[in-house]
Amino acid sequence: MDYISTLFSTESTLLEYQNGKLKNSSIKNASSRLLRCSFNGKLATVSGEKESSLSDLVKMAEEIIDHGEEIDYEFPRDLSYEKKRPRNSPFVDNLSTADLNDLASDYLNQAKKLLKGLSIDLNLAKTKTSVELSSSSGNCGEYSYCDLDLTVQVMGLKETEIFEWNRSLPSIPQSSEELDQFFQNFLVEVNQANHVSGDLEPGKYPFIFCPEILTSGLLPSFFSGISPSLIENQSSPLWNRLNSQIFSEKITFEEKALEIPFDNDGLSTEHKFIVKDGNLEMFPIPLEYSKKLNSRPTGNGFSGFPFSDFYFHPGSGDLRHWISNIKRGVMLIASYNLTQGNLVNGDLSGIISLGLMIENGEIAGRVKDRTCTFNLYEVFGTSLREISTDTQIEGLGRSLSVPWVLADDVEVS
C-alpha cells in the first residue's frame, strides 16, 4: 500500500474588539494529519490528530480501502524538493500578545478621534502554520508561513440608512510602518465614503478594479474557466483555447513557485506562465486529472485556487492619474455577490458593496444601491484600458500579487 501523509500544525493568537472594547482574546494550537493511501487502483483517505500514529492511520485505511474511490494514477516516487524561501516576517514573528493589544488599542483610539458617531469592530490575529509531508516511497518535505490578519469594520446610522465599511490587511506586513500605512489609508477611505455620492444613473462607466475585487471576483472566474474538471467535460469556454489569445496582450499571469515546494499530491511546484501577453499558456493539471487529460501533472494539486503563488504582471498606469482624468466612474473594492452570474463564462453581476464614485477627477463619496454587470473576458480584453504599476499582495497562506485595473464600459443598473 502506497501513502502520502501530510501534517498541518497551526499556532494562532486572536484579539477581538467590538464597538471599541475588547471582547475576546485567545491562543490556540491545532494540528491534524491527513493520510491518503492507494492500493490496487483504490484510494482511501483518513485523518487524525497530530498524536495519531502513522501506523494506526494506515490500519484504518486498510480497513476501508476495498470500498475506496477508484483511481487511475499512482503517487509520485523518488522526489526531492527544492528549498524555498519561507513566507514570514521578522516583525510579525516578534509580536507578543501584549504588542498585538497595544497595536489594536492605538488603532482604535485613532479611529475614535476621526470617525465620530461610528462603531468600530477590529480583529487582529497572528498565525504560524507549518506543513510536513512524508510518503511510503521516502519523499519528504516541509514549509511554513506566518500571517497577520487585521480586519476593521465601521458601522453607523447615517440619516435613514446604515453605513458600513470594512477592510482586511491584504498581506503580511514587514514593518510597523507598513501596518500603520494600511490603517491610515483605511481611515482616509472611510472619510471619503462617509457620505453618499450624487445619484449614479444607470449606464456604462469606466471602472477601476482594486486588487481586492480582482482577487475575490474576477480571478476566481478565470480559475473556474481553467478548472481541469470543466476542461475534461468541455463545459468551459477555454477548453479548446490552449496556446491562443484569450485576453489583451497587456495581460500576463505567472506562477513563480517561490515559497511552497510541493502540492497536495506531493509533486514539486514549478515556475510557469499561465497567460503570457494575452495567450493561454497552460492548464493546471493535478495528479488525478493527468491521464484523463493526457497531460503530465503540473504540480497544481491545491484546494481552492490552483497555484502555489500567482503574479498578475503590473503595467505602466498610475492610479492617481486615472482618477484625475475620469469625469464620472467607479472605483470598485468589493461586491459580495459578484459571482451570482455565470462564473465559468466570465459573466459577472453583483451589488456594489464597497465602491467609491469618481466625479470630475475626484472621489465624490460612496456608491449605494447599484449593481454592476460585466464580462471578465471583455474587462481583460477589449475594454481594458490600463494596468497599474503598483501591485498589492493578497491572500493568506498562498500569495497573489495583483495590480489595479482600469476598464471601460462597465454597466451599472
* Number of beta strands: 19
Determine the mean pLDDT: 91
Low-confidence stretches: none
Order of helices and strands: EEEHEHHEEEHEHHEEEEHEEEEEHEE
Strand content: 35-45%
Structural class: alpha+beta
How would you characterize the largest beta sheet?
12 strands, mixed
Helicity range: 10-25%
Tertiary shape: globular
CA-atom Rg in angstroms? 23 Å
CA distance, first residue to last residue: 58 Å
Task: Compute the number of helices.
Answer: 8
How would you describe this structure to a colleague?
This protein is α+β, with helices and mostly antiparallel strands and 413 residues long. 20% of the residues lie in helices and 39% in strands. The chain has eight helices and 19 strands. It has helices at 54-64, 90-93, 97-114, 176-193, 211-225, 228-232, 319-324, 376-379, and strands spanning 2-18, 21-39, 42-49, 69-70, 119-135, 140-158, 161-168, 203-209, 253-255, 272-276, 279-280, 310-312, 328-334, 347-351, 354-359, 362-366, 371-375, 384-394, 400-412. Strands 8, 9, 10, 11, 12, 13, 14, 15, 16, 17, 18 and 19 form a twelve-stranded mixed β-sheet that branches. A seven-stranded antiparallel β-sheet has the order 4-3-2-1-5-6-7. β15 and β16 (362-366) form a beta hairpin. The longest helix has 18 residues, at 97-114.
